[in-house]
Fold this protein.
Amino acid sequence: MPTILVDLDDFYALVGDGYQPARIEDDLELVKGEFKGPDPTTGRTRIELNDTNRPDLWSAAGIARQIRARRRGQVESHAAFTAAPGGKKIVADARGKDVRPYVAGFIARGPAVTEASLAELIQSQEKLCDGYGAKRKTVSVGIYRAQKIKFPVHYRMVEPKSAKFVPLGMDDDLDLAQILEQHPKGREYAHVLAGKPLVPLLQDDAGQILSFPPIINSRAIGEVVAGDAELFVEATGTDLRSVLLVENILAVDLEDRGWTIEPMVVEYPFDTPFGREVRAPYPLVNEVEVPDADFNRLLGGALSAAEIAKELKAYGCHTAPGKAAGRTRVATQPYRQDYMHPVDAIEDLAVVVGVNRLEPVWPERFTPGRLALVTLVEDKARELMIGLGFEEIIANVLCSKRDVTERLHLDGAQVVAIENPMSESYAALRPTLLASLLAVEERSAKTAYPHRVFEVGEAVVRDADQNHHSRTEPLLGALVAHPEARFSDLHSVLSYVAFYLDVTIDLRPLDRGCFLPGRGAELVLDGHAVGMLGELHPAVLERWGVKMPASYLELRLAPIVTVQG
Amino acid sequence: MTDLADLLTTLHPLEAKVLRALDGTDAAAGEARIAELAGIQEAQARMASEWLLAKAAVEVASEDSTPFVALDETGQQFAKDAIPELAIRRKLEQGPAAMADLGDAKDLSAAIGALKKQGLITVAQGKFTLAEQADWSVIEADQQLVAKLAASQRFFESDLAAAQWKRATELAGKAGKASLGIKRGEQKRRTLQLTALGKDLAARAGDVADEVSQLTPEMLRDGSWRNVKFRAYNLQIPPPRSTGGRRHPYREFLDAVRRKLISFGFEEMRGPIVESEFWNNDALFMPQFHPARAIHDVYFVEGTPRAKDLPEPAASNVAAAHENGGETGSIGWRYGFDRDATRRLILRSQGTALSARQLGKLGDLPNRPGKYFAIARCFRFDDVDATHAPDFFQIEGIVLGEEVHLRHLLGLMKLFGLEIARAEEMYFTPGYFPFTEPSVEAHMRHPKIGWMELGGGGIFRPEVTKPFGIDVPVIAWGLGLDRMAMVALGIDDIRDLFSPDLDFLRSRKSPILG
């Protein structure tokens, strides 16, 4: 979800026709944008864009284009897609297939770049590379001072030590390997090229280096400054459609700002999905064929075919009769490639009509509401515990490994741990509720005793027999702490709860570190272990800083569901 | 005018005893004396006197305060060991010593300064030596004073020799250790006497002390209750505090939401916390390159184990939907679907995983109408802070039906807003979720919070439903109610929803949610 900064005056001018909205929020609905107020450092306006499949909207020009389409109610066309290539070329390298196969570029001529428009251009470039290009992995963009370049440009694969140049932000010549190690951008993006013996290099016909894609531009040619009026805009990447889409978006943004686009052709020494000679900007086609009835069926609407066509046009979509009768072909512009299924066109219709113009209705059909069986047992257990005067706790499922092993005198055999924990404190899933309830005791020494607390909640236990190598266990855990707290307190609670849950639970001796030897019991239901009960070992209490005798009861609730059917 | 009879019926036996004690003596009396006269404990006399003062039955006859001196903890220590000056002398008696050898400087530097000034010690080449023929009598007298004061809790002027009282009060006025741990205090003393009202009450309070306060089984057995008088209670005395079994206030909130959803005809879904990427993401048509699936967004299970089984043909259908749309009518995401990665086990990151599982459970009747919901524990790779709990509950659900469309989703969200969230006003905006199209977000005005996001929803993409053989539209929705729960419970840190502090939990009220 990118957030972009726009200058409101610039943005309104891009919409044109004297645009001055009373409430910008309403029009931002067209682009699934949220108005986030001014940016404290730059004073520009922040707009968050929610649709990750619409990179064409990640700039002031893109948002303006979408708003303009509806205000004018017509589909705009851009010369960038129809203009003939001007003869300038890029020559690709066969060895790129194993590295970063694709490249595309065009020339833009127009009003000299200003500080503001340069900032805008850099922002577009960054949002496209980060958000759409997976942080430059699949697409990255470079912009250069075209007048310094002798065309054709060569997109070569070279050995990292074989070329050196002065990168942006530095004063000395570095070879490509050095750039990966020393330059901040090199370190940041080196992983994109990890394990590649050859790396990409853009050079002009005179051998001047333009850039080391997708890492960094050269300072000599790749540093656009205010006053430049002729730019070379290229993109490289691993997926040609994405590379072309990014070029298309940059081209229409510039064209909307008054620049003239001169398309360029890339010559590939191998076949691509778009042939061996591929122009950019490229008139990408993205269309779906929608059964007419589906528009109204999915939206619950009653629009005529003509109204649907009119509305879609006002969203910038082309419509035409489908190949089969009763169907409409809906096509996006070449700078949009987000139609995968007819429902995507139906959503465009909902957006341009405005979801608030659709009247909410309640679901008509009756269906019986019901709780899951295990929830019914959980609720029963909770009700019984509350009736016995226990206070309910909710704790987190994530915990530290130490809390459920060392600090309970238990081994970690049951613990499911996290491969990539954010912190040690939340590196495992609790296999028992004991640590959660001891945490209550640890924290509540100042609260008058007796303490009688319980939780009914989920824990996760390792289990090699299960599909997911673990079980999510709904448990009842109860703890009593007071000067006279004994095994019998909770034994009595257990027999009360078991009676009303209608199960017979037997005890057998249990030697577990958390309990005093000879004072722990395993709970048995139909021959299966379903929990534990015992007086907590003083050494465990000590580890939690608890100065009061305490007993603990834990009962698995899933087996009770099974027993009761 | 307070009615005398009323006062009499609520008179506590202790009050009656105090009134009679004061009535029987000519002089005003302090509480200690009252206790003696009434034959009760001093604490009881003090308590009953306060009640009677409040009722204007007694008044303060005299009040004075008497100064006293006492030792604090430092002084007690000095009494046991030695005051700093004497401690220095003891050290120096063993020979000249440098500052560092005299102990930790801060304590002693003031004492050393004082001793130098009085000419009791001299300094040469950084070493201190005892002065010859010095007069230590003042210091020794101070030590004796401290020792004496240690013998009792407080000393009034009359308890000490005049010189000692003078010296003690002088020292008590000094700052820090220079006071030798001697502190001044004031003991307040008062005497009480009956007012006119009190005299009237006392005259008629004769019987009160003989009233009974409690009915006993014996009285019922032998019928003696007929012959006793039960004292009327003072209703203004605060009762002892009760604690008892109680639902957790956050759970109570979630229970109320659950009850509502059941009443709307939703059936509950439950599922595993350790989930496969298949159910958590792939079945929901989130491409495997989606940024929210990366190592910095979800938790992976240690050792990255794989789910042993995935349901077929659903798993193959899902893979095809990603790669080229399969039979779903979509062109798909167009990438190579990783059939191993889809089995990787993670911690459930969204409740929608349960909705996906539900789609897989419909079996032979995939299109049967239904409404399903879950309140599911979810986990995301995030810093834990005031707005991010280590794990959290998501409230999600789906509605299947031949006739279901987007306006039903809007109606459902409106129902949730009005019935669950106390929305005063609502509107919708287009939204984006990878698994729904069209998608909307619902916004509402809450009476306490103001405008807030209620939740989001949409119609499941065919790429989500068709792999499970479902041909009818499926509405999917999710609600974000945590902020509302926090406001209801009066907390502003989300971690407090899971607080382990019993006092804190007992102090939280839970609103009654319709």
Residues 317 and 411 of chain A are 63 Å apart (CA to CA). Chain A has a mean pLDDT of 95.
